[in-house]
Amino acid sequence: MSAFESELQVLADRVVAQAAGGEAIEAYVTRGGETEIRVYQGAVEHFVAAQSEGIGIRVISDGRTGFAYAGTLDESAIAEVLAEARDNQQFGEPDEFAGLAQPDGVEVTAQSLWNEELADYPTDDKIDLAKQLEKLASGVDPRVRVDDANYVDAHGESAVASTTGIRMSGRENGCYVSVSTLADEGSGDDAETQTGFGFSVGRSPHEFDLDKAAQDASDRATRLLGATKPPSKRLTVVLDPFVTAQFLGVISSTLNGEAVVKGRSLFRDRLGDDVAAAGVTLIDDPTNMQAYTATDVDGEGLAARRNVLIEDGVLRQFVHNSYSARRAGTVSTGNATRGGFAGTPGVGCLALSLEPGTRGQAELIADVDDGLLVQSMQGLHSGVNPISGDFSTGAAGLLITNGEVGAPVREFTIASTLQRMLLDIVEIGADIDWLPMRAAGMSLVIRDVTMSGA
Amino acid sequence: MRTGAEFAEVYAEDKSSTSAALDDGRIEQVTSGRDRGAGIRVVAGETTGFAFTSDLTERGLATAADAAAAAASSGGGGVRTVALTKSAPHRPNDVVHAPDAIAKARKVELLQRMNEAARASGPEIVQVSAGYGDSRKRTLVANTEGVLADDEIVRTLLRVSVVADGDSGMQTGYQSMGHTVGFEIFDTVDVEVLARDAARQAITKLRARPAPSGSVPVVIKNGSGGVLFHEACGHGLEADHIQKEASVYAGKVGQLVASPMVTLVDDGTMPGEWGTLGFDDEGHVTQRNVLIEDGILTDYMWDYLRARKEGRPQSGNGRRQSYQHLPMVRMTNTFVLDGPDDPDDIISSTPNGVYVAKLGGGSVNTATGDFVFGMTEAYLIENGEITEPLREGNLIGNGPQVLKDIDMLGNDFAMGNPGTCGKDGQGVPVGDGQPTLRVTAMTIGGTAA
After folding, report:
1. Among A46, A58, A90, A261, which would you mutate to test the B interface (most chain B Cβ atoms within 10 Å of its Cβ)?
2. Is the Cα torsion angle B237, B242, B244, B245 positive or negative in sign?
3. Do the Cβ atoms of A292 and A434 come closer than 8 Å?
């Protein structure tokens, strides 16, 4: 990463050089752009060309932290941001653990996060990709129409510097296509519409699998046609890979070191305990280039690294940034997250995955007598509480009877607790799929979940 | 406008904000932010080109304009001159104390008071986090239809989250308050009351039992459940979904879509409310739109592009998150008007069911109408009385069905908490409100039989 000596690094260095005695300063500078193309009925509905840049400055002295940012890199604005951060610093209350990350000697795993092919990809070809995807998705089944087909790419460079000796810069780019579908059946009062989606991600458009995205989007919509509300009962659920990735996203917040040190994690006193079924291993590994969110450094400029969080069911460690680590009496695991220049580093998993099993989804389903294949969940932000562990979401999917997938069902919820669900994992699928999110997907079988319907 | 496009628009924004965060007993950080830039939109045929820049010099704007025009592939030539008509200033909110005129120390002190009040509520309270935020956003919109409108919106927001610990594990409570006014809001809002209410929720839930499963009658407290309408029909009445026939409400104007007691309004002009604006983000003056009247669907919500396609007026619902985003059809403050019933009667006439005192977020699939919303504070109703607290969960229903299944509507209308509505990756501030009401049956996402 340091091989790419950017103009942004110079800006960040210049801010840090202004530190007064006893003052710790960190500057985080980004610049990036995005192309977003939406196609509808064979024509471009919108084309967005975006450029943005900004700087965030953190000032710490006497254990007090202040922060300010601006969405511009104008000289005068940067001076103002530094002055504001210093002013804000007076209002922070002293915290003996406040501070910036220290270089920890962990080697950065070199990764190729910049793709020249994507950087040079012609605009007309991007438009064609979205048009092609729309056509493919409409062609799979006569009942299916396309709500929108999209091509999106983004590129960004960033630099961080601090008075503690952190100095890192780099750049990356990536792209994806996505399509939303509607499947219609019946007419008049019996008219019914179901929805589906599909996508494909890549470092370059050459990695896209448009056929699979189109097929997924069409299948997801058509297989729910005729869905009814199921009865309420306890059963075994098989989560589709996309749903598993969302589930892991919720689990990750319980393993967040900041939540742990502030007493908000339900696993805070459980290191070394069995928190998941035997055989369940959960790893956060942003150095795996297959992960969509692969990265070489974290939000504080420390090397990203592989961390085993749960090993064969046993809770081994939490993820930390430098602050939560100091409070917990440990070292940063390279898990500082950063939502752009407008915020200070948080803590989070960067690229989470279960260790995959050995069997595909069809084989997992074959072992289920009375169950449910969950195709989508709705309301993860409203019915799941990672502090209490209560888990309740809307869902849609297909019933499983004697090992066979059967009738589609919708307008019901599935519920348990996060604690129970980890312990109730029956099997993990081999069908690992890296999705455009911070967790990988794969089929996951969990028993004893309440389906609430009619 | 130098190209052959039919429509071009510039939206410029200058926003300054301050926020403060308290957690774990101390002020962790005060943050100041500055965002400014312009978004340029060019429409040619059915294609919209959009570019934005944080470079507000003439050169920066020209570059963005060229990019937007190229994106719309408008081609052609010629220069069109447009006479701009400055819209009369329209300020639904009178701001007394602009946030930048208030010392940061006073903002921080509010959080310290909330922390103390929450912790004093009981030994069960083990953690408190609180946040304060204010912003002042000045915007200017000009377009080739001759619109020239400027607006200034001040926002003040406060939130508090509390964790209580007991034998059954941890539980949480939450309260928030947000208005499009300045610091004078704290002359009337008691921040300690907010904090104590969040603490009370968390402590109450320590003795909560698992929510039931299956279909139950649901009573929703006034001012807590506007999100039900936001999800059950609000999104489905946005004209972009209608025009793509991706809404269960497409083609239903003039039809009975809800209980005849229901009148649903979207109103961006309500003084001080969280979803209030002087002009929408396309420079169109906000207005009060009746969407459902006595159960009959009267109209959808419209932005410039969708209204143009239909040859009808816009409704002041074109909104965007920032200059970096394209406008689209969005709600403002969405609420149901009072009905005939006494709220106490609604509870006492419900033999068994669930009383939802505070709702969390929600979401909807507009094409199927299926929607969920979270209940963050709920109780059982047994023999017409509110009894045991319930653990958290989602409720799920189908919009058109739930609207028809509203069989009692109270006369105690109240607005709810400030919300952020997400659509297509953009978040905008919205308000909601409703009187106490009863839905005859909804599916509750608990684990108990």
Report:
1. A46
2. positive
3. yes
Per-residue pLDDT tens over the stretch B393-403:
999 999 999 99
Do A261 and A211 lie in one domain? The reply is: no
* Neighboring chain A residues of B218 at a CB cutoff of 8 Å: none
Give residues with Cβ within 8 angstroms of A239, minimum separation 6. Answer: A247, A374, A443, A444, A445, A446
Do B324 and A50 lie within an 8 Å CB cutoff? yes
Same structural domain for residues A240 and A205? no
Chain B: closest CA distance from residue A344 (Å) = 9
Cβ <8 Å between A382 and B372: yes
Q: Which residue of A has its CA nearest to B18?
A: A68
**What pLDDT, in 10s, does the model give residues B297-324?**
999 999 999 999 999 999 999 999 999 9
Q: Tell me, yes or no, if A360 comes closer than 8 A to chain B by beta carbon.
A: no
**Domain end call among A165, A196, A222:** A222
Q: A148 and A17 share a domain?
A: yes
ipTM above 0.85, yes or no: yes
In 3D space, the residue among A190, A344, A339, A187 whose CA is nearest the CA of residue B19 turns out to be A344
Chain A CB contacts of B201 below 8 Å? none
Number of domains in chain A: 2
Task: Assess A225–B contact: CB distance below 8 Å, yes or no.
Answer: no
Distance between CA atoms of residues B142 and B149, nearest Å: 7
Tokens standing for residue B221 = 């407290």
| Domain enclosing residue A433, as ranges | 233-452
Residue ranges and CATH numbers for the domains of chain B are 7-205 (3.30.2290.10), 213-445 (no CATH)
